[in-house]
Amino acid sequence: MKKVLFIFLFSFLIQLISKAQSQDFFEDIFLERVWLSVVNENGVYNETLIAFKPDATLGVDTSYDAEKLIGSDILSLYTKIGNDNYAIQALPSLTFDIDVPLGINSNANGPLTLALEEEMNFAAGAQLVIEDTKTGEFYNLRNEQSFTFEFDYLIDTLRFIAHFKPAPLYSAIAVTCLQSDGSIQINNFSETPWNVTIFDLDSNILINNIEVDSFVQWSQFVGGLYFISFRNEFNSMFDVAIQIENAQPVELQISPSSNVVDIANATINFSAVLSGADEIFWDFGDGTLDTSQAQTSHTFAFPGIYTVTAVAGTTGCEQYFTTVITVVGVITSIKKDLCAFSSNINGGISITFIDSFHPSLLEIFDVTGKKIHEEALNNQQQVNVDFFSLKNQMLFVRVIGKTEEFNFKYLSN
Q1: Distance between CA atoms of 167 and 122, rounded to whole angstroms?
Q2: Closest by alpha carbon to 394, among 376, 369, 363, 377?
């Protein structure tokens, strides 16, 4: 009697430990789990639990796995890890094929029914195929749910293997502004190939029963809804819908605070109206590049004409916008007391200096700040310059003397 009581208490203690170890399997509502069961013709029932966790291994995980206590039970079902029997077993995430030996103990011969009793969070397309090593038959429990067989309790204990196979992954690449360049990708991580057929919304077959054993991508799709049909040799089958998004047109327009500025105050604010993209790539035309939002500013360091370009969008869906900025040279003061100047009908200019000013250099710039004329004066009191080729243009004149310089704007006529 004491021996029986000891066995009972020991069994109860082991069950408490197993329950504590496997508590995560019951509390984690997102965990992938399957319960396999076996039942005899008299209704005697037993089950085992298999779960998939990212941190589990193919070996023994003491934090999760719980051994199966097999005593005088009429019927028991368990998984095998090495030589040991387990009522609860954790496996790694199902991203590759995993084979799990099953054990069945019974105290008598006769018909038994093996079933997928329950599944939780098991992905569509993931497979559970039971191999009967005695007959060579395969049973897809996600299709058939159960099968019945004759069991010989002396030789059939390790007759079955559970083959878990991951679901294929599928995704779509959106169409760009180039049009008709959308794609559908399928990645098969199982050793069992899938036969794939793709239909459009009008049931036209676009991809017909192509075997996929690893990764494949089909292109040249327009935007729209498509249907993918998966089939394999174990009669696994499932269908999914997938959307290829159309390209979102990119619209862009930029406005500078000014298109013409003086070099003395050459900071320009740029404002953009943008849709279809989040960021703008700016090229200010002077070698400065910037990635920014719709509002930015830039300071030009030298006179000149600059083509500012803004680009927004993604590959194949870019939108460009350009604007021209003119930065003129420093022409700010006119010292009329130092000279007198006059123009003629041919666009020329005549400059006469007072005796106390000793000019040494004359420079003339166009509106962009480009120097178009330079002349040494050597203290001469009058100079004549012909601007016939630049008639009706704004010019900037700078005169440098021994002790001072002056400059002025001049419109040739």
Answers
A1: 9
A2: 369
Separation CA 196–CA 392 (nearest Å): 74
Residue 396's Cβ-count burial label (10 Å; 0-12, 13-18, 19+) is buried
CATH number of the domain to which 220 belongs: 2.60.40.10
Integer angstrom CA distances of residue 73 from 89, 139, 153, 163: 20, 26, 13, 26
Q: Which of 222, 244, 266 is the last residue of a domain?
A: 244
Instruction: For 157-211, write each residue's pLDDT tens digit.
Output: 999 999 999 999 999 998 887 778 899 999 999 999 999 999 999 999 999 999 9
- pTM, 2 dp: 0.62
Count CB-CB contacts under 10 A for residue 2.
6
Which pair of tokens denotes residue 264? 């003395």
8 touches 92 (CB < 8 A)? no
Residue-number span of the structural domain to which 302 is assigned: 251-328
Cα–Cα distance measured from residue 162 to residue 216, given in angstroms and rounded to the nearest whole number: 28
Task: List C-alpha distances in Å: 163 to 101, 160, 191.
Answer: 9, 10, 11
